[in-house]
## 1
Amino acid sequence: MAYLVAVLIVVVVLLLSIGLHEVGHMVPAKRFGVRVSHYMIGFGPTLWSRTRGETEYGLKAIPLGGYVRLVGMYPPDAAVGNPPARTWLGRLAKDARQASAEEILPGQDDRAFYHLSTPKKLVVMLGGPVMNLVIAFVLMAVVLLGFGLPTYTPHLAGVSQCVLPADAPATRTCTSSDVAAPAAAAGLEPGDTVVSFAGTEVTSWDQLSGLIRGTGEEAVPVVVERDGELVDLTITPIVAERPVYDANDEPVLDAAGDAVTEPVGFLGITPSQEMVRQSPLSVPAAVADTTWQTITVVATLPSRVVDLVQSQVNDTPRDETSIIGVVGIGRFAGEIATTDGIGWQLKAASLLQMLAALNIALFVFNLIPLPPLDGGHVVAALWEGARRQVARVRGLPRPGPFDSAKLVPLAYSVFILLGAVGLLLIYADIVNPVQI
């Protein structure tokens, strides 16, 4: 049941994200006087629709996107000089211009989208992706400020009884020949909270860990809170060889492939992990970091698609960094909800983080400068505005609207390509899912 509920939550939030994305286009378009004839969630046959005012609102059978139809997206033939249609590409563009012109009601040509100024076109086209970015901010704020992040704290989850070698297996237990761990020898117990170490007030596990690693073998005072009371202890750390970790918390290896170690102070304590609420400043930082990671993925999308095809052809497991589709997202949500050993707060935070990342992906992906994506319309508007600015500087007559219908063949090609990649992702996520 938890698995199904999590999948349902992802579906609902995804549909809401799509719906609000289209609202981001529709509201400024209507504000600028453009007639919006349709507002639809999904593609394919219409399941339900209602007309309110001059706009038909509805749901379609395939919930993998949505659209708003802005009347007059393409300028009519007369506005772009009646270009001849000598090739099939020209005929395709001409058909698009004519179909767009037919949507313009008599006497309402001034309400066509192509009449908007460049800044207004940019506001309309960027309204959708920006809405996804706003959703990501809200979801990330709920996670970081409401639930918090799993963070190691000075509250002790365990106290080692002996000092094990750095290369000892995880299942190794203490023997009579092992040296007693300093923490156990000093009387520290699981459940204690370290309040101060060597006279320094302790505020975080990272701080305490740094203080411990920097000590030698001299005795230092430690204050812990136990059962609501402060207990003064004296502990004598030992210097032990411990692995060196890089910025990604991965062990550093030498040329032979062995873990690099260094002598550090050691007590033999294990921190507990708790959900700690973050500061408001962490929200934009987290969104910026996720956005940059998404940009790097989108920038390498062609190679990732090739890797995906090769994994399917060769029947090899997919890498953890492989791109996933809606089926994979739903499966991750279900696995998060049914994972044992973690609290519901961490499950909810993980699910919301994933949904925030999904909205950031929608934000970044829609800004790809190719039609029919929003980024393609942004580039067309910028090109139109640049032509007009150059003409103004040179004292030339103001040029007419850019014939964006010429991009229709490219838009069809991109749409077909994206559809094929989407189907491939659905297939791969079912028969060869990413294992994490």
## 2
Amino acid sequence: MTDADELRRRTDELLAAYPPATTGTLDFLRARFDAGLAWVHYPQGLGGLGAARSLQAVVDSELAAAGAPDNDPRRIGIGLGMAAPTILRHGTEEQKRRFLRPLWTGEEVWCQLFSEPGAGSDLAALGTRAVRDGDTWVVGGQKVWTSSAHLARWAILIARTDPDLPKHQGITYFLCDMTDPGVEVRPLRQITGEAEFNEVFLTGVRIPDSHRLGDVGDGWRVARTTLMNERVSIGGMRLPREGGMIGPVARTWRERPELRTHDLHQRLLKLWVEAEVARLTGERLRQQLAAGQPDPEGSGMKLAFARLNQEISGLEVELRGEEGLLYDDWTMRRPELVDFTGRDAGYRYLRAKGNSIEGGTSEVLLNIVAERVLGLPAEPRTDKDVAWKDLAR
């Protein structure tokens, strides 16, 4: 078994062979992956050592103390949090070895081609088609709300391969090269003024069958692995006390006593406690992950994340009064990442509105928590056994 002492020894060897002060960032990250110190719970040869997930903190703290570069996880969050665990669980050995290393080092950015204009909350109703042509699949359709599509080299994609089956069946999961002919990315300007999201049009895109993930028709099961990990990665981020959205509000409260009122004080106390409860619950969830795959509890964390962000950002705007109505920059940009704490209160307030939509709408997640966590009776679903082609649209 690989223990903490062994990981420290391996980390010291990495630092001795590749001193951060004289080694390029990419060279260091590649060496770290090859040494099994990227994600220690992954198998040997795939960036890990088969160690306990909880021991990752040992490696991270040693490298941080030595000034080693990281892989800028916020920029490649979709790859790290969604694509990688899905490829690890459902991919072939060839797919794992081809994709996981450049994904982790940040050489290849990933995006997620799931939602469609007519299949958002009801994702299984998707209509993007993939038709087999020998050893390739010809894909046509439209995807929407695609973060980082303007930066991505690869995408995780689900498409309908058999319209004669019910909607949750007949779906297949693919890895799509975003540089292939027929892939068109268009920006979607948001309420913040930025185009962080995109819509993606797929016209006769040819995907080799070797880039299919899982069996033909088994895409919904594979996609559930992605969705469970997505909700954990959004709602279960590791934060220090007063990390995230509550931090700027608490600092303003301490530094600007002239803004304080009794009502705002009571609301701030309530939200501070709830943010701390959510932070500790997230820590417990990460400890549970060390024992296996994420369960639907991640949906509850994502729900809390969305509600708290919206309530806290609203309180911050009220606390700042007239200042809260200011906005720093409406320039149309296509950013590489979302920076909640590096911008002003107006940005946080506007951007938080998307938290209850992205990564699964709050309404859908409430159903998941009710049915899969609390064990309540499922809602009636009259279309569950109806062929997709016969569904009313």
## 3
Amino acid sequence: MRKPATLLLALVLAGCAAQPPEPDPIRRALHNLSQRAAEHVVNVEALQPPDGQVLLLAYPQVDQTLEIDSGRFLESLTRSLLSVSPGPQVLDWRPAMAGQSGGHQWRLESRLDATAPRLVLSDRDLLPYRLTLALHRPDADEAVWQTEIEGAFDATAP
């Protein structure tokens, strides 16, 4: 009876000691980009103090050549904005909300574009990008504030 129990215990311990799966490199890169974007947004003069503001996040436009799902980027950006303390309230914006503006509400639009084709180097693949962020009043087309963040995702980083 002891041998099967010992064998089972050894198998369980071996399974626990196995290496965890490698993290998704794009997930980490999106997290870092979203953190940078959140820092830019919460420091906008018009949003001060940020904890008294409501950010309505428009669904992002993401260049398909980056192979990043728009919903995935939206989730990452939302999480980063929510992690800022003190920070704004963050909600999804829908076109049906147009015209419903309060003095503390802002629509944040984002666009993630590829700025060059994938760069294949000897030790990594890079995806150059430009993130454009624009802050609007919910009922206005003209941006109150806009910025761009450029860089490259390392598609092979652990």
## 4
Amino acid sequence: MATIEECRAALDQLSDNLAGAEGGVRGSAALDRSLSCRITDLDVTFTGRLENGRITVLDTHPGPPREKAEIRLTMSGDDLVAMVDGELNFAKAWASGRVKLEAGLRDMLRLRSLL
């Protein structure tokens, strides 16, 4: 099972990956939205912002998100680490229910190119 530190490192790596992306992927990630990532097996939530193609983690707290973020992810720690490492395809994990992504319709349309 992935640790909180490994999950945080994976989010930092995801942020770096988004910041280094080009073309349509970078444009899709260039939002300014609140973000939460709930890690179910660790019962912890990372909260922060997606701004200009980067994820900034502002807080980590136990349990489910305290406030409803504009973009909400839910998954296990192992799935987060595997996705960032390229071992798990996000679209397949999302389609199978291993990963949940919730956002407004406009944001979902913009984020679809990241999938």
